[in-house]
Amino acid sequence: EVQLVESGGGLIQPGGSLRLSCAASGFTVSNNYMNWVRQAPGKGLEWVSYVYSGGATFYADSVKGRFTISRDSSKNTVFLQMNSLRAEDTAVYYCATLHDSGSYFYWGQGTLVTVSS
Amino acid sequence: DIQLTQSPSFLSASVGDRVTLTCRASHGISSYLAWYQQKPGKAPKVLIYTASTLQSGVPSRFSGSGSGTEFTLTISSLQPEDFAIYYCQQLNTYPLTFGGGTKVEIK
After folding, report:
1. Is B44's CB within 8 Å of A105's CB?
2. Residue B49 and residue A102: Cα distance in Å, rounded?
3. Is the N or the C terminus of chain A less surrounded, counting Cβ atoms within 10 Å?
4. pLDDT in tens, A53-75
5. Considering CB atoms only, which of B43, B55, B101 is closest to A44?
């Protein structure tokens, strides 16, 4: 069974940094597209970043140059390093991976990041 | 990027009503579309994928149709547990974008 468990969220001041983790089980992260999707309070879903099985990474324009996605195959975990955080980065951050068919996402439970002074 | 536009953004309906939600894509995406249901404080839950395939365990009152740029999600008889926000997602091209959502509320 595919499971994704996010951690690392919290309250951080503007300009600060935070690293989110997504521990996966039931599959191998290095063989899958791994994504981060966020949802600001009361808003819709926004795709943030992915790392491809071959290692290529891609980012939404809103986070490019500030966020870095990476993975640790030995821990079967994906990370999102978030630097230069802004108030508008406040959101629940979900880790998500594609079903084998490539037809939909499996989701974690999310972790809340609040950027505020 | 492929833009997805959902309509309506808000829908008020009664238990037992038949409701239809629409998702339009800015470019053709074949049948690479999924529908999710989200309730407060929870992660999205997949209902339909490849436009019309019902996810295992999802009630048969949910159905999806469409291809190319226009898609619909239909709930044949709205139940109390169906009041939620519904999102479409295209899986044709990265970034895998989402629609803005349709909130279904009790009339």
Report:
1. yes
2. 10
3. N
4. 888 999 999 999 999 999 999 99
5. B101
